[in-house]
């Protein structure tokens, strides 16, 4: 009985030791362009590194120790080599090495804490990632713009490999390789431009232009729609000309009436001016006649009393002239 009890205790001890070792044992997942979308589900800690990076090599032991607790923390621990997966480095916009990202159900947070295993363990277990904002949707690895950025990074790697192959395997100089890339860039731009023009013309085709037939092809046949448009335009031009002529006639009549009124007013004004000038000239002549008579009376009839002269001053010129003529006749008879 005691032996049986001892055997049971030994088995339980071995089982517990095995379970503990299984919980602490984990493995680091290697992500590439074919399986990186697995990180959009569940919890992930992703490390971006390069074999030539000293800081990345210094963190290897701590990161491996952290991966031993992956099952306990229910998290997947992964690594991405940017020298082999340039597209993924473009998706996550990796600008420093090593870089760490924590992901949970499709959302990602940049881990900027200490690179020790304990610090990463506390970050995941204490859910410290909730204190920070996740990656902006514009820079989300699964967005369209970051997918295009991934293609750009892949293209740059391909161009670098081609350049290395031209200079190392084929023995071409660096400047010849640059010239080949320049010509290739121009040709690629022309092809893309032509493709863009074709797509634009397909989406929004230009309207076809109608060319009239030549004189040698026979009588010119005007389509019905063009004929209708021409008739409508001719009709509208005639109506416009008629309105303009009516406006001109109305304006001429108004101007003519205005001219007659102005002429009549001008004639009245001139007649009044002439009458005034004639009256002024008559008055001037009368005063000149009176003055001449006064001078004549003063010279020839100095013996005439002053009273008569003063009386004659108040007599009109015509009466004074008649009186003088009568007096002169009487004087002649007396003589």
UniProtKB/TrEMBL annotation:
<dbReference type="Pfam" id="PF00085">
    <property type="entry name" value="Thioredoxin"/>
</dbReference>
<keyword id="KW-0676">Redox-active center</keyword>
<feature type="compositionally biased region" description="Basic and acidic residues">
    <location>
        <begin position="323"/>
        <end position="335"/>
    </location>
</feature>
<dbReference type="GO" id="GO:0015036">
    <property type="term" value="F:disulfide oxidoreductase activity"/>
</dbReference>
<dbReference type="InterPro" id="IPR036249">
    <property type="entry name" value="Thioredoxin-like_sf"/>
</dbReference>
<keyword id="KW-1015">Disulfide bond</keyword>
<feature type="transmembrane region" description="Helical">
    <location>
        <begin position="175"/>
        <end position="203"/>
    </location>
</feature>
<dbReference type="InterPro" id="IPR013766">
    <property type="entry name" value="Thioredoxin_domain"/>
</dbReference>
<feature type="compositionally biased region" description="Basic and acidic residues">
    <location>
        <begin position="222"/>
        <end position="244"/>
    </location>
</feature>
<keyword id="KW-1133">Transmembrane helix</keyword>
<dbReference type="InterPro" id="IPR017937">
    <property type="entry name" value="Thioredoxin_CS"/>
</dbReference>
<keyword id="KW-0597">Phosphoprotein</keyword>
<feature type="signal peptide">
    <location>
        <begin position="1"/>
        <end position="22"/>
    </location>
</feature>
<keyword id="KW-0732">Signal</keyword>
<dbReference type="GO" id="GO:0005789">
    <property type="term" value="C:endoplasmic reticulum membrane"/>
</dbReference>
<keyword id="KW-0256">Endoplasmic reticulum</keyword>
<dbReference type="InterPro" id="IPR052454">
    <property type="entry name" value="TMX_domain-containing"/>
</dbReference>
<protein>
    <submittedName>
        <fullName>Thioredoxin-related transmembrane protein 1-like</fullName>
    </submittedName>
</protein>
<keyword id="KW-0472">Membrane</keyword>
<keyword id="KW-0813">Transport</keyword>
<feature type="compositionally biased region" description="Polar residues">
    <location>
        <begin position="268"/>
        <end position="287"/>
    </location>
</feature>
<feature type="region of interest" description="Disordered">
    <location>
        <begin position="207"/>
        <end position="335"/>
    </location>
</feature>
<keyword id="KW-0812">Transmembrane</keyword>
<keyword id="KW-0249">Electron transport</keyword>
<feature type="domain" description="Thioredoxin">
    <location>
        <begin position="8"/>
        <end position="129"/>
    </location>
</feature>
């Amino acid at each position: 009985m005691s032996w049986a009890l001892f055997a049971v205790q030994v088995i339980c001890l071995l089982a517990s030791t095995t379970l503990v070792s299984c919980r602490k044992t984990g493995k680091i997942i290697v992500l590439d362009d074919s399986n990186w979308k697995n990180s959009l589900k569940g919890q992930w800690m992703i490390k971006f590194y390069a074999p030539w990076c000293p800081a990345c090599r210094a963190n290897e032991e701590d990161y491996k120790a952290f991966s031993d607790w992956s099952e306990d923390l229910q998290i997947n621990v992964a690594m991405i080599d940017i020298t082999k997966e340039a597209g993924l480095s473009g998706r996550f916009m990796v600008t420093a090495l090593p870089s760490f990202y924590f992901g949970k159900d499709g959302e990602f947070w940049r881990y900027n804490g200490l690179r020790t295993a304990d610090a990463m363990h506390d970050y995941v277990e204490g859910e410290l990632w909730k204190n920070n904002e996740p990656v902006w949707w514009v820079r989300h690895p699964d967005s369209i713009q970051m997918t295009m950025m991934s293609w750009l990074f892949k293209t740059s790697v391909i161009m670098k490999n081609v350049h290395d192959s031209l200079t190392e395997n084929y023995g071409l100089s660096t400047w010849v390789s640059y010239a080949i890339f320049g010509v290739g860039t121009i040709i690629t731009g022309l092809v893309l431009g032509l493709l863009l023009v074709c797509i634009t013309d397909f989406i929004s085709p230009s309207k076809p232009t109608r060319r009239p037939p030549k004189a040698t092809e026979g009588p010119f046949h005007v389509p019905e729609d063009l004929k209708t448009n021409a008739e409508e335009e001719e009709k509208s031009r005639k109506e416009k000309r008629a309105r303009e002529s009516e406006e001109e006639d109305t304006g001429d009549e108004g101007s003519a009436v205005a001219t007659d009124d102005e002429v009549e007013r001008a004639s009245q004004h001139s007649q009044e001016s002439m009458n005034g000038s004639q009256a002024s000239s008559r008055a001037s002549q009368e005063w000149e006649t009176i003055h001449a008579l006064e001078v004549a009376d003063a010279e020839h009839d100095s013996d005439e009393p002053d009273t008569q002269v003063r009386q004659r001053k108040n007599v009109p010129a015509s009466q004074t002239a008649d009186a003088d003529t009568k007096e002169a006749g009487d004087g002649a008879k007396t003589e």
